[in-house]
Design a protein that fits this description.
It contains one helix and nine strands, in the order αβββββββββ. Strands 1-2-3-4-5-6-8-9 form an eight-stranded antiparallel beta barrel.
Length: 173
């Protein structure tokens, strides 16, 4: 068992050699989540449904440096209230020694809030930083755990900072 675990660990760390992170390569990272929860306050239940879909696509300008665009859409519904948001913006990611990556992105975002009584539209900016490493499943597909820090600000919203852990996957060509 220990030998199997050691083999898997070594393949994960040294599989980077076969990755497509050289100049002229492409990166595509789709993402999505779907969630549902039911919350009850004093016997009244409000269902909360959330959905988001997005992705990124980038081109390796030089070995280990990719630049591209992030896009995203999300929807949250609770009772009669509904919120939809869209984001788009550039990102850059650098692979240090081909083993782990550091990245940054900037997105312009827009949200539409419908409370059932009236609607409101807000715009804001999102600045995000990430650090993680690719675990290569095969030569062109990696699972990517990453720590991220996101700052959202704008005239219409209260500034918000978020720290989190994401686990996604990325296709390399």
């Amino acid at each position: 068992m220990k030998k199997s675990l050691l083999t898997v660990t070594l393949v994960a760390f040294f599989g980077v050699v076969h990755a497509q992170i050289e100049k002229g390569g492409w990166l595509i990272g789709p993402n999505s989540n779907l969630g549902f929860s039911s919350t009850s306050f004093d016997g009244s239940g409000d269902n909360v449904t959330s959905f988001n879909i997005g992705g990124k696509a980038g081109y390796f300008l030089i070995d280990n440096l990719v630049a591209g665009v992030n896009v995203g859409f999300s929807s949250v519904k609770q009772g009669d209230s509904k919120s939809t948001s869209t984001q788009i913006g550039p990102f850059a990611r650098y692979y240090v020694s081909g083993i782990f990556f550091l990245g940054a992105s900037f997105s312009a975002a827009s949200s539409k809030l419908d409370s059932g009584i009236g609607e409101a539209k807000i715009t804001y900016n999102v600045l995000a930083f990430e650090g993680g490493y690719p675990i290569w499943i095969v030569d062109n597909i990696a699972i990517e755990p990453a720590l991220n820090y996101t700052m959202s600000s704008g005239d219409d919203i209260i500034d918000r900072n978020t720290f989190g852990l994401n686990i996604g996957f990325t296709l390399y060509f």
